[in-house]
Amino acid sequence: MMQRDLPPTVAPLILPSRAPVLSRTGWTAFVIALLAVCAIAPLLNLAVPRDSSFHMSDYAVALIGKIMCYAICALAMDLIWGYTGILSLGHGLFFALGGYAMGMYLMRQIGRDGNYRSDLPDFMVFLDWKSLPWHWSFSDSFAATLILIVAVPGLVAFVFGYFAFRSRIKGVYFSIITQAMTFAAMLLFFRNETGFGGNNGFTDFKRIAGIAIATPSMRMALFVLTGLVLLGFFLFARWLVTAKFGRVLQAIRDAESRVMFSGYNPVGYKLTIWTLSAIMCGIAGALYVPQVGIINPSEMSPANSIEIAIWAAVGGRATLIGPIIGAFIVSGAKSWLTVAAPEFWLYFLGALFIAVTLFLPHGIVGLVRQWKGTPK
């Protein structure tokens, strides 16, 4: 009796192991950045004498703190554009919404120290308002403000993304709609009757959580907090993109139809990362306002949102560290050029974007990797 041929042994399916969040070199660089933010910068600003060449000026503290807020936005842009293929030209809206939530609280903290010695903000007294509008109800609570900083940009992004992604709007059409949304919001906030200070916005802040803002220690505290948030978001983003969720996002970027045929629903993934990136921008805006001292509707201008995309493109999309580098380089150049040659800044920005698109499609990080022979 002949025996049946036994089927060949099937090799077990071995899934690729998850990549580490950071390499040994990456962790070393992260610790150095952490020490620079939490120890070196405070020491150089607060302990080193002002006449010393090693002193870090208050201007440098404010400038770097502001750029770190921009870097958070660039990191958020990389998550949706670099890893998911969604180009937003409206993320300045979420940045401004977080800034306005913080600005409303800071305006309430002024109290009777304003020019009109009223419990109402000065612009409301000037416009002959008798009471606070309904949307200012929780603006005197720091805890409620922290919730609103996250909830308002997140809710706006969720509602917009829900209808946009379910309608399968993508590509240039999605980018145009996000820009139109931001422009419409800017026009709305310019109106005095909306209760957001009109074209002047909010300024003349005095205190935060009962502590005076215009002190070196508070400025440095905000600087350190911003740096910690940036580093924390970077670690979170690295963890996210190396997980299964991040691999699905990259598959959606490269071939969304194949992802659907594989049994995944791209809408849920796109909506999640879209809302998360908006929340990151809102938190960046909230950190930005007390350090800069003003928030107005110009933060919602389409040009500001386009700049966020330029930061990501210059540094290198789908790298996480690249957009942070791009934010520092472009914003640093802007701070210098707007003083040295303000009439040439916009020409420089446009030329930079065109040059990167044509000659550096993977940005600065991609160029460095090419020189080192490291795969993308």
List keywords for this structure.
376 residues, mainly alpha, two-stranded antiparallel ribbon, two-stranded antiparallel sheet, 4 strands, globular
Topology of helices and strands:
Blueprint: H1 24-47, H2 58-82, H3 91-110, H4 122-126, H5 142-166, H6 171-190, E1 202-203, E2 207-208, E3 211-212, H7 216-242, H8 244-261, H9 266-292, E4 294-295, H10 302-315, H11 321-340, H12 345-359, H13 363-372
Antiparallel strand pairs: 1-4, 2-3
Helix pairs in contact: 1-7, 2-7, 2-9, 2-10, 2-11, 3-5, 3-9, 5-9, 7-9, 10-11, 10-12, 10-13, 11-13
Short description, anyone?
Helix content is 66%, strand content 2%. It is built from 13 helices and 4 strands. The protein starts with 23 loop residues before the first helix and ends with a helix.
Task: Describe the protein's architecture and organization.
It is a single chain. The chain has 376 residues and is an all-alpha fold. It has a domain at 66-300. The protein is 66% helix and 2% strand. The protein has 13 helices and four strands. The chain has helices at residues 24-47, 58-82, 91-110, 122-126, 142-166, 171-190, 216-242, 244-261, 266-292, 302-315, 321-340, 345-359, 363-372, and strands at 202-203, 207-208, 211-212, 294-295. It has a two-stranded antiparallel ribbon with strand order 1-4. Strands 2-3 form a two-stranded antiparallel ribbon. Helix 3 runs antiparallel to helix 5 (142-166) and helix 11 (321-340) crosses helix 13 (363-372). The longest helix is centred in the middle third of the chain and has 27 residues, at 216-242.
